[in-house]
Fold this sequence. Notes:
Elements: H1 6-16, E1 19-24, H2 30-45, E2 49-52, E3 85-89, H3 100-104, E4 110-114, E5 125-128, H4 135-146, H5 152-165, H6 176-187, H7 192-201, H8 205-216, E6 219-221, E7 226-231, H9 233-239, H10 249-254, E8 261-267, E9 273-279, H11 285-290, E10 295-296, E11 300-305, H12 309-332
Parallel strand pairs: 1-2, 1-3, 3-4, 4-5, 7-8
Antiparallel strand pairs: 6-7, 8-9, 9-11, 10-11
Helix pairs in contact: 1-4, 2-4, 2-5, 4-5, 5-6, 5-7
Amino acid sequence: MSSRRNLADVARVIKQHQSFLLTAHVRPDGDAIGSLLALYWALRGLGKRATMVLHDECPQAYRFLPGWAAILSPDDADDEWRFDAAVVLDCEGLERTGAVADLLANIRPIIDIDHHAGRKAFGDVHATYEDAAATAELIYELLGHLAAPLTADIATCLLAGLMFDTGSFRYANTTARALRTAAALVEAGARADRVASALFAEEPFPKVVLRGIALSRARLAAGGRICGSYLQRADFAATGALDEHAEGIVEELRGVGGVLVGILSRELPTGEAKLSFRSHGVPDVSQIAAQFGGGGHREAAGSCFAGSAEEALDAAMAAVERALAEAEERQAK
Length: 333
């Protein structure tokens, strides 16, 4: 049984209720979708009612996961909807659920399950553990407290979440605990090769072309320790790429030899720019993202910027360069 005791509190609350609204953050990633679907199937397996609602559509990249088509939009809500409780997954705050926040305002209790660093717990019941490699890892442990069967479908969803947030077990958050969880999921029927292929190898052509544009604009700073690039809305229109197709580009920027921090800035349909940071742990990019009103993890973080994609990239690269200079000064003392 898990040593993360708050998960037992979550399980107790879940056992006391019958119908649930499940949600996660806007622009959901692999961990958010995988965790959401896994909990959905687990609750249904326990004879409970669960409704998944997200502000945004499920990205095409995760539509290989069982149950994705059951994810609803806030626009689907009607006066007949009644929930005993809500579970918010992989989310740093209720505002990050987008339009779903309006639905949550009328539901109690709200259960908060997440693994992001530097956040404040919200809702009524919390299971937030920064040492978890992914929210999917916490959902796996929650199933044990619930005595919920671990089916092959649930295992597949959880493995997708775990593999996404660990970069297919390449990032520093790949702990022994995460690997043990992955082994248990494979034993339960998840196919690691198929999940890895779907997440990281099967790319639509527009995504390949979009990545080429971003890489053609890549530039270095701080003596080659920072690599950044940007994408404009016109790039998405010209290639036919979706917003989700920008995923993975920032990891390639970080993967350049000698680079400590990769940064991708991309223009959003709202006119703002979305900044994505990736590092090898030094500097802590969650602290840099916080300067722009964002957050995340030590090695992966993001934020929005009120300006163009190029302006956002310039500001982000300058912030990282300052952080590197300050770290050098501290080491010199």
